[in-house]
TrEMBL record:
Catalytic activity line of the entry: L-lysyl-[protein] + 3 S-adenosyl-L-methionine = N(6),N(6),N(6)-trimethyl-L-lysyl-[protein] + 3 S-adenosyl-L-homocysteine + 3 H(+)
GO biological process per UniProt: methylation
Keyword Cell inner membrane assigned: no
GO function terms (MF aspect): protein-lysine N-methyltransferase activity
Name of the protein described by the UniProt record: Electron transfer flavoprotein beta subunit lysine methyltransferase
GO cellular component: mitochondrial matrix
One Pfam family of this chain: PrmA
Family membership: Belongs to the methyltransferase superfamily. ETFBKMT family.
């Protein structure tokens, strides 16, 4: 994707959806296998193609390596991107709300075993560690996201969580006290799989489940929505609103399947 002219914050905001659509359209032309690429190579690539930021998010105390208008791949042809689509490089509004809620309510994680499912940049895992979680696992099927999570933990002076790149959805539930999901209800089929698996986790281990979502249609229209209890709502910073097509708020919900 090639964009002409300088990218101001308001101008770049209009490109987030176009940005990922371009990556999706060029996926078949890219080499998507991360195997054979060393962590050192991936670390170097992330360092060269992201910017340390976070000040304009809901969690300004958390520093993250993310895509910004200053980064090469805002302008570069997406077929030159050598990995899977970089969802880890955006701090999505559901994840922002979830991380903010955890930081504001440290008792939610204190002394607990926590799974950050679909962890992306690792922000919710970082929030859990900052709040004294006993054990944190970050799960994302993109191995580059795992490296980014390690780097983001280092930025915040933390030991990295255990990073798991197998798809845990549908697997035999492990014993976690708490599962965190930020912006995971973007696809109806995925939402349905999540719904079933989360039920198993709750029934098997009594796991608490917290969900962050800005009110996307796939979330609001899914059957799981009637089983949620809202815990908090956060007004998104102006820059985040612009990046997400005018979404104004993002909420955190507790999943109560017995409702």
């Amino acid at each position: 994707m090639i964009m002409s002219g300088p990218l101001t914050p308001s101008k770049c905001s209009r490109y987030v959806k176009v940005f990922f659509r371009a990556f999706e359209q060029t996926r078949k032309h890219r080499c998507l296998s991360n195997s054979g690429r060393s962590d050192a190579f991936i670390r170097s690539f992330i360092a060269e193609n992201t910017e340390t930021t976070g000040e304009q998010s809901l969690t300004p105390e958390v520093r993250l390596r993310l895509f910004t208008p200053n980064c090469r791949f805002w302008r570069e042809r997406p077929e030159l991107w050598p990995f899977d689509d970089p969802y880890w490089a955006i701090y999505w509004p559901g994840g922002q709300a979830l991380s903010r809620y955890v930081l504001d309510n440290p008792g939610v994680c204190l002394g607990k075993t926590v799974l950050d499912l679909g962890s992306g940049c690792g922000a919710s895992a970082i929030a859990a560690k900052l709040c004294g979680a006993a054990h944190v696992v970050a799960n994302d099927i993109d191995t580059v996201a795992a490296v980014a999570t390690h780097m983001n933990c280092e930025l915040n002076g933390l030991e990295p969580p255990v990073c798991v790149t197998d798809n845990m959805i549908g697997s035999e539930p492990e014993h976690f006290d708490l599962i965190l999901l930020g912006d995971m209800f973007y696809d109806e089929a995925l939402a349905t799989s999540l719904h079933s698996w989360l039920d198993r986790c709750i029934k098997t281990h009594g796991t608490e489940v917290l969900i962050g979502d800005p009110g996307r249609a796939q979330f609001e229209g899914h059957g799981i929505r009637r089983l949620l209890h809202q815990l908090a709502q956060f007004e998104l910073p102006e820059s985040v609103r612009e990046e997400n097509y005018g979404l104004t708020c993002s909420s955190v919900w507790r999943y109560h399947p017995e409702l």
